[in-house]
Here is the input.
Amino acid sequence: MTIKPLLDRVVLKVDNAEQTTASGIVLSTAAQEKPQFANVVAVGPGGIVDGNEVKMYVNVGDKVITSKYSGTEVKIDGEEYTIVKQSDILAVVE
Here is the structure.
C-alpha cells in the first residue's frame, strides 16, 4: 500500500529514537525523546490552502527536522509514518 498525501502534507519516516545517552546509559522507552529527524517519503502537490497558494519546498528523499510533537502518526503494513503539514518542517538537513 502506498500513501499519497494531499495539498501541503508530507509523509515522513521518522528516524529511530536514541536508546543510549552519549555517556552510554541505556534509556527506557518512557525516557526516550521523540526524534525530530525524519526522511521524506512522499510529498503532496501543494496548491491553494486556506485561500493562499502553497509551493512545496521539500522533495522525496530529503532529510528534515520537524517540530517535536507535530503531525499524525500512522502505521501501514507494519511501518510507522508521520504525516505533517509542510509548515511543521523546520529545516532540510544537507
In short: Strands lie at 9-14, 37-43, 47-49, 52-54, 63-66, 72-76, 79-85, 89-93. The two ends are 29 Å apart (CA to CA). The mean pLDDT is 85. The first strand starts at residue 9 and ends at 14.
